Structure formats: C-alpha cells, structure tokens
Amino acid sequence: MENINAKYVSQKISKTRWRLVSHASLQQPDVFATGSWDNEVNKISFWSIGNHGSSDMDDGFEGDPQLLCEHKHDGDVLDLQFLDQDRIVTTSSTGAVTIFRLHQNSQTISVAQRWPRAHGFPCENAPCTGVVCSSPEIVTVGEDGKIIVFRADQEGVIRVIENADSSTIHAVTYLRTTEILTVNSIGQLKLWDFRQQSNAPSQILSLSGDRVPLHCVDRHPNQQHIVATGGQDGMLCVWDVRQGSTPFSLMEAHSAEMWEVRFHPTNPDHLFTCSEDGSLLHWETSTSSDMPSFLQGGRNNSMISRSAMAPAGGNQSLINAWLSGDSSKGRLETTHMLPSQTLSVNSLDVLGQCLVCGTDGEAIFVNRQVPV
Amino acid sequence: MEEVDVEPTVTVNVHTSPPRCFHSLLSSPSPLIPLCYAICSFISDAKGSGCSFIHEVRKDEDIYSPILRKLFNESHHIFVGLQTIREDLPSKNKKNQFVSISKNYRSVIRACMEELQQVAVSTKEAAVATQYGNQVSILLAIELIWNLCEVLFIDAAPAGSLLLHLLDWVRLHKADVDEKAREVLQSESPAEHRDYWDVPGGNQTLTEFDVKWRHWHDEVNRCLQDNSFASNRHLEIICKILAGDEDTLLEHKELLSTWYHFLVTRLLFSHPTVKPTELHYYAQSCLTMFLDSRSVPEPLDNILLAAFEFDIHQVIKDCSIALNNWWFVAHLTDLLDHCKLLQSHNLHFGSNLREFLLLEYASGLFTHHSLWQLAVDYFDHCPEFGHVYLELQIERVPLDTERKALKVLRICDQRQMSEQVRSICKIMAMRALRNNRLGSALSWSIRAKDAAFATLISERFLQDYCTRGTFSDLDLIDNLGPAMLLSDRLTFLGKYREFHKLYGEKRFGEAAKLLLSLMTAKIAPRSFWMTLLTDALPLLEQKEVIFSADQTHELMFCLEELTSCLNASALGSPKTSQDEDIELTKVELLRLSLARNLAMAIIKEGTVEA
C-alpha cells in the first residue's frame, strides 16, 4: 500500500481507463482518462503519470497524475472506453454516445462524433449504461433495455435490438468478435450472436436463487468461455458459458455493490474488483503443482465455492484456474489495495503494473507497482 | 436567466498585512432559502441595473469552488479517521494522535492555500484574482487561529515549551505574509539569540533555566547602564530589545506587523518562562499598546485574544459569527471535543455544541449536488439528531440515474432506514413502469420487498396478455425464480406462464393439472377464471381424454361459481347486448365441452382394459 498515491481532483470519478499501449513495446501505460459524475458540469479528463520509458520510478511524488486536458461532458459519464490511441467513446446519463478525440500535439480534446439520443424513452431520457468497442464497431446498452451497434465513422446506427431486455442492462462485453454478453438488473447473463438476425439472445444464464442485479462483467483474456461478474450483493461469480446455466464458483467479495471487475489483460491469474464499500481487492490464484487444474472443493479462505459437476473430460491444460474442479491444490489470495475508509470506489483499470481507480471521495489512486 | 453571484462585502488588503478580512455576510449556510433570497434582493446585482432578473441563489459560494472542494474532501477523510480512534488508548498516545490529526488538518488547509495562491497570481482576470486572493486570506486567518488553538489547547504546552511553540507559530505566519521584511527581521529575529542559552525541555528544569535567564538578563541590563554600546546606535537598539524594553520594541512596530508578534517578542525577552495562565494579561496589554492608533480591534484580534484567555467557547462563537462557512468551527470543535476540552452544556435547541455545528455544516453540504455523500458520514457521527436529519435529507437527493439511486439505497440500507428504502424503490419502480420497463419495475419491488407493487406489475402483464394474446417480456416471466413468491399475483403469473410452456411442449396432462390447481387453490384471481376456462377448451376438445371425471367435475363447479358471481354482478353493471351474447356463448360452449368430456371420461374410467 505504500506505492499508492491519492490525488484529489474536485470531481467524483465514475470511470477511469488506461490508454492502450501498443503490444509490441513493453512500456508501462502513461496516460489515463477519467469521467466524472454528479457534477453540475461533468468532464472527461486525460491525465499523465509521466512513465515515459523509465522503469523503476521510486519517487512517489513524481508519479502524481498531471492533468493534460479536459472537456465538458453533457450528463454523467456512465462508461468510457478507448477506441484507439486517440479516441475515446463515452456514454452519458442523457442517453448520448460521444466519441472524443485527443489531439496529442496541442493537448486538446474535441468532439469527433456524437449520437445525442441513442438511448431514450419516449418521454424522457434513458441513461446509456455501458459501452464496449472493437474499432470501428461500438456496442452500447442502456436503461431502456436496448442494444445498439454503431460504427465509428458512420452517422446512423448499424443495428438496434429493441427490447433486448425488460430490465436495465448494466454492462456489456465482447465474448467473441461477433458475440457479446450483457448483464441486467434481474441477475441474468445473456449471450447475443450478431450473425443471427433474430432479436433474441442465443443463451440466458442466471443464478439459481435470488435474482440479484449484476453490475459488471469481464471476460478472461485468453479463454473466451470464462466470464466473471459482480453484482449488488458484492459476490464475485465466475461462469463458464459453455456449460450449464449456473456459475461455477461464487465468492464473497464485498459487503456492498461491486462496480467493476477486471481480469489483468496479460496476467489473467490476477483479478481486481472494486465496490461501493470503498475497497479494492486484488485476487490472485495460483496452481502450486504441475497439474494445471486446481480446485477448491469446499471452503477455502474467503471463498465459498459452489461447484457444478467437473468439466466433462477435456484437456486438463485448458481447465482454468478460476473454475472449481476436483483437487484442492491451488490457492486464492485476496489483498486490499487501498487505505481503509474511502468512499465508494467506482471504477478501476489495470494494465501492466499500473492500477488506477477513482472514488466518490473525489480522489484518484494510482499504483505503479502492482505485484503481478 | 441571469446568474448573479452574491458579492460579499469585503475589505481586503492582500499581502501587505496579516489577514484582517472576513466576510461580513451573516447569512448562515443552512437551507433558509427565503431568508437568503431576502438578503439577495437587498444586494444589488453586479451590473447595478434595476431590472428584475431571475436570481440564482447561492448560499455558500465556497463549496462550489473547485479548489476548496479538495479541502472538504480531504478534511472529511481526516474527520472519519478521527472518529474511529480507539477510546482505550492511554492518554499520552491519544494526545499525540490528536496533535498529529490537528497537523493534518492544517496541512490540508495550507495545501489548499498554496493552490489558490498559484491560481491567484497566474490568472489574468482581475475578478478571479481578487476572489481567490480573498479566499487565501481567509484560509490564512483560519490556519493562524487553528495553529494557536493547537498550541494552547490540544498540545497544551506547559510553561517553558509554551513560548517555543508560540515562537514557531508566529514565525510560521510571519513568513507567510511578510517576506520582504523577513530579511531585515532575521537579524533581529529571536532565532539568533537561541544560541545564547539552552532552551528548557532539553535537560534542564524550568527553574534552572529561569535562573540562568535572569543572570543573562541582568547582564544585558548592566551593559545598557554601562553604555557599552553607546557608540553604535544599532547595537544599542539591539541591546535594548534584548533587555525587553517595550518602548524600543514599539518603535519598530512596522517590522512587527501584528500585535501577537509583538506579544511573543516581548515575552521572549522579558518573560520566557511564561505560564499558560498568565498569557492573557500580557496579551491584553500588548494588544492595547499596539493598537493605540486604531480605535477598535478586528474580529481576528478578538478571536486570538479569546484564545489566549483560554476561553474556547468564545473562540468558537466569534469564529462562527465572523466566517460564512461552518467548516472551520465544525471540525475544530469536533477535535476539541475529542480532546475532552469542551464542557458539555446543552444548548437550548437540544444536543451539544459539537453536534450542533456538525449538523449545520453537514446540512450545508447536503445542498451541494455532489458533496452530499460526505455529509452522510457527518450525520452518522452526530448521535442525537444525525439520524433524523439524514432521514429528512436523503429523500431529497435527485435521482437521475439508476446508479445514483442504488448508491442512495445502499446508504439507507446500511442505516436501517427502511421507510426511505421503500419510498425510493417505489419512485424508481413507478418511473420504470411509466416507461414500460416491467423488468426494472419488478427488480425495484423485489429490492423493497414491496408485495403491493409486485401485484401491480403482474396485473400489467396479465392485462397485456389479455389484450394481445401473448406475453411480453418472456425473459422476465420465465426466469422469476424465488421472486415469484413475493406476491400472489406474481406467483399466478409465473404458474400461468408455466402452463403455457407445458401446453407448448404438449405435456397436456401436467398442463391440465396445473390449470385446475390454479383455480382450485385460489391462486388465480376470479377475474381471470374465464380466461383460464377458455384455455381449458382446447384441452377438453382433444381426441383423447385429458381431464379425468373428477377434474371435470371440479371444472364444472368452478364454472358454476363463476357464472353465479357474474350474474350477481351483472345486475349492477350495464353491458351491451353484444358483450352479453359473447359471454353467454362462451358459457354455453364450455358447458357443452365439459359435458362431452365428462361423458368420455366416465366411459374411459369405467372401461376395463382388455
């Protein structure tokens, strides 16, 4: 916890994302974007932590995020994602979807494209709650239960799935290039295949038991069938979408809503979650033996696991560390990453060894030496 | 609509003298909109025109300033940390902790001040520079007072080290304001003379030091008598100062720009072993001597004087009047209360002073569109009235998005405010219903465990079915899960859908049983029975017998019950003859089908299998 710096920024942060670094270079990320919420005038801002090429920066103060530029944003920033090096997509509580462009040389931001009422109800605004993009395609979801597909340089919408859900869709993620996964406020995961013309999901998964709203979802970077979700009760669920309709493991993570769950993009044995209760947890699994599959058959540390039947046959080496199985050789460690008593941590992002998160206490925390 | 900033009447002299300006705007930041509006109407707007524009009333400018917001957030963090200090620590440790917390607060103030200062000097607009300059001055004053309170009350330095702390205090604030004079003052600054003797607190007792000091003082006086410095005027002045000669000190008033600097200097040279209880004599006399040119002391002077007199309540009272924001007094009082320095006398309006100030501050915060979340923690730590205040305020937070509603609900949940949970969920559910988001509405009523609303939603579904013939939102109804049990109507909806699924899968026997149980177990509302019986028609008309004889009897019984009810009610309600015809036809068809089915069932059950 010594490596974490807090910076007070006079705006409640709803989302923060690292700017993508090219995979070729092993650079640590140096720029991140934040979006604010609940302000009279909301903003998106770009910050730099000055990590240009120099490794082992041990002086805490030099790493203080510096504001590069900011731009007014209409409505709360509910979700934010980098489209490419220079452009970000944001979704707003007014239902608008906007693409902003960052001009590197002049350090200014301009609006590149805007769809002002992408999501909406007939008589009022519907907040657009989630976005995911894989340039040039952008997929957004909202409180109106619609899924909309855009293309970055085209004016209109490409496809709308009306009434995709009778409740609010909280988050969306890509499963494959033509498949997405959404989570909603009655505790269901729905798979949508864009190759099909019908407006019905190709699969619905849900928890047995109470219909707890799910707020966030993230897919394992390497294994496309493994998905982690977090919901209102703070439980972390790991699902295998190929098998069955119930999660493979459930873990008690937080005492309040979990707002974001992220697998580490290059080291997926590490998972990060943040919550309304003000904590940010770093989950680390490992297999301690040569057997790649590890299992928590019963209770282990802070984890309550409810295992379905073991994955039928299949190559042992493909069985993921996050799923339950039949031997308890592995372990799961959880560490708190923030000093206690912060207000809700709304968002986090992790890339390389750097972690950034934003809170309702109007603070941004950056940790540049995450042990992964 | 023109926005008018309420311009406070301010007299300010930035950077030339210690902070003497205070906002004399007396409106308190509590939400007294009519009072504020009345005050606004007396203050002319910036352009001085007489037109009646719509004024945007802003009670408390400070909380809207982006740099000052950091002050509120950081101090909130420190405040919450202070509340959780364990009670069972030994008092010496606690005192150190309180001192360090006090220093934390002060460092937050200084950080804010520096940032404001940077903006004030770098901006090109004069108005902004003035405004920020004002804020810097106020923060300077606040820090001055806080530092003095820390020295006198929290740290409670005894005689001997008291003077050292006061020296530090003066030097710190002197350096802030008067940098040019500092070089001149260095030569005459007390620091130089520190080297002349060991300060107490090291390895000497107070009396030892006192004796040594008296020796030295006598020596200085002797030098003066001897006129040993008569040749050099400057040296003589220095010698007089060292001897503590008041007149000489007063002659150099411009260098000691404040009376408290004069006080500390005088004490340094004449009474270094001053006791805390004696301070106020010297303070009063120094103030009088220093201010002979001016008629009346400034509010800041009065506050400092009250502090020297150890009259904590007077300090707090004067600060509350002089400043337009409760931030300072609330946090300082809370800290002093933790140090057990405030006598707890109850105020007329219930609760003690600390709680009153915290409530006022938090209420002001709650009016801010963003900082209301901080206020919740302040209310939490007001044991007597905090809960009530929170209950009243939390319902007024505007809920634009579901995410905000969820956060407010979490706050209510954690404090067992179930009334507020129900009402917020109801608002969100109604909104969802209005926009035809039945799934959302259901999820809100599940959250609130609101059976009545769940019934309402089920009614909507059933109405939809009756008008359209199909269910909408199948993804919701098919996956109700345990939520089905929330209300009877919802259970019926789930079961009815199940019936349709069974029928679709051609599992007629189970479907028939389910349908019957819906009526006999009284799960179905009476109004829906006709529809259910009509649904039974295709089952009755199948080639093979699905309903057994007993079941058919039960169906007939239900039909009779229904028709007798309808007849009874039909007398009252006017129906068109067309409707009546349709009703009659339906009933007749049903009776016919039931009779035929009964016949076939009896035959089938009576037949002995060959």
Q: Would you mind describing this structure in some detail?
A:
The complex is a heterodimer of chains A (372) and B (610). With 372 residues, chain A is an all-beta fold. In chain A, 0% of the residues lie in helices and 47% in strands. Chain A has no helices and 28 strands. Chain A has strands spanning 4-8, 12-18, 31-37, 42-48, 66-73, 77-82, 87-92, 97-103, 108-115, 128-134, 137-142, 147-151, 157-161, 169-176, 179-184, 188-193, 203-206, 214-219, 226-231, 235-240, 249-252, 258-263, 270-275, 280-286, 331-336, 345-351, 354-359, 363-367. A four-stranded antiparallel sheet of chain A has the order 1-28-27-26, with no helix packed on it. The radius of gyration of chain A is 20 Å and the shape is globular. Residues 53-61, 288-318 and 325-329 of chain A have low confidence and may be disordered. Chain B has 610 residues and is an all-alpha fold. Helices cover 66% and strands 0% of the residues of chain B. Chain B is built from 28 helices and no strands. Chain B has helices at 33-42, 66-83, 91-122, 126-154, 161-177, 179-188, 190-194, 206-226, 233-242, 246-251, 259-270, 279-290, 299-308, 312-322, 327-338, 353-366, 372-380, 386-394, 402-414, 418-434, 438-448, 451-468, 474-477, 488-504, 508-520, 529-540, 549-570, 577-606. The longest helix of chain B is centred in the N-terminal third of the chain and has 32 residues, at 91-122. Classes of the chains: A mainly beta (372), B mainly alpha (610). Chain B: Component of the nuclear pore complex (NPC). Chain B: One of its GO terms (biological process) is protein import into nucleus. Chain B: Belongs to the nucleoporin Nup85 family. Chain B: It comes from Gasterosteus aculeatus aculeatus. Chain B: It holds the Pfam family Nucleopor_Nup85.
